[in-house]
Amino acid sequence: MRTSSLNRWIKQFLTAGLAGLIRPEHNHRYTLQTKRSAVKAYLSGTLSGQAILNRYQISSLSQLHQWIVRYNSGQLSVAYATRKRARKVGRKVTFEEKRQITQWTIDHEYNYQAAAEKFNVSYQRVYSWVRKYQRTHDLESLQDNRGRHKGKTPTNEVERLRQEVRQLKAKAKEREVQIAFAKKLVEIHNREVERPDDIKRFRK
């Protein structure tokens, strides 16, 4: 028997009693609140990875890491958004609100769920506005045009240059967010390396 396995069983017993030593006969289903609480505890650094596994009875660090990636991309609580969509989808949203919501989502590392909750709209609508903006790099494209034309064509040189400037700024902002997200992933990876007890002893 590996020492790491024995240590894990001891911690599971101290945390959850005999129930913590019983292997489930089927895949354990975690509540949304459990997932979010575990991720926030890890990102805040208040608990070690193994302590989080014990407290929330999570099967492995890899499971926790999957939730972290989904949390940072705003996709951890899609199911929750789906349940709320029926109530939120009917709300009318002005063009200025679309601009604000889209920009807020981009500024917050594409956290669609947080935007949906903050502005009381559905996850899918936020996602569609951001995707539309990403295709055009122009917030004006969010206007509710009933026709199928692709947008307003610049009528003179000044307008064309202004449109190009907007597109360049949008691309630069998107790149900035991508870099920030990449740095966050590196930070999480480095934090794992700094926790040898979690990685070397309990990943086996």
Automatic annotation (TrEMBL):
Coiled coil feature spans: none
Gene3D superfamilies assigned: Winged helix-like DNA-binding domain superfamily/Winged helix DNA-binding domain
Organism: Limosilactobacillus fermentum 3872
UniProt GO MF annotations: sequence-specific DNA binding
A Pfam family matched in the record: HTH_28
Residues of the Insertion element IS150 protein InsJ-like helix-turn-helix domain: 97-148
UniProt-listed InterPro entries: Homeodomain-like_sf, InsJ-like_HTH, Trp_repressor/repl_initiator, WH-like_DNA-bd_sf
Name assigned to this protein: Transposase
